[in-house]
Specification:
- There is one protein chain.
- The protein has 140 residues and is mainly α.
- The chain has 2 domains: 17-99, Four Helix Bundle (Hemerythrin (Met), subunit A) (Up-down Bundle), CATH 1.20.120.910; 101-140, no CATH class.
- It contains 4 helices and no strands.
- The chain has helices spanning 22-52, 60-96, 111-116, 124-138.
- Helix 1 (22-52) runs antiparallel to helix 2.
Length: 140
């Protein structure tokens, strides 16, 4: 995608347009980049908070509570680090012309699903089948 696409302010992809047109690809690229930026900004806030937030708390219960809060924050950031990897994968699929198509069936992933979960790699049907299969194996 070398040409610069300018989107109208309230543009939302719709089914009337050609699937994964330059306009739609630019919409999802921007959506993914904005999401990634938001996550990275939050991570910077966490780092700053942890650097300045270290303090000596004499009460054991208060100290334990603060340590629990920090552990939860770190777990959340780890999940978001993995999410960034998925966002980067989606951005690569946009560049490779593979974005919006199911990894399993090769069919189009609905615009509604992509709008709700822009990192989706499977159609709703393929995802549901995958989750059912996973559940069966987990129950063994």
């Amino acid at each position: 995608m070398n040409k610069k696409i300018v989107l109208e302010k309230n543009y939302i992809p719709n089914e009337e347009e050609p699937f994964m047109s330059d306009k739609q690809l630019e919409y999802f690229r921007k959506k993914l980049l904005d999401w990634k930026s938001e996550i990275l900004d939050g991570a910077q806030d966490t780092i700053k908070g942890m650097q300045t937030g270290t303090r000596n708390i004499p009460d054991a219960a208060d100290r334990a509570s603060e340590e629990t809060d920090r552990a939860l924050e770190l777990r959340t950031r780890d999940r978001q680090r993995k999410l960034i990897s998925k966002i980067d994968g989606a951005l690569r699929r946009i560049e490779n012309g593979e974005y919006g198509y199911c990894d399993v069936t090769g069919e189009q992933i609905s615009l509604k699903r992509l709008n709700a979960r822009p990192i989706a790699t499977m159609s709703l049907e393929a995802q549901a089948k995958h989750e059912r299969k996973e559940k069966v194996h987990r129950d063994d």
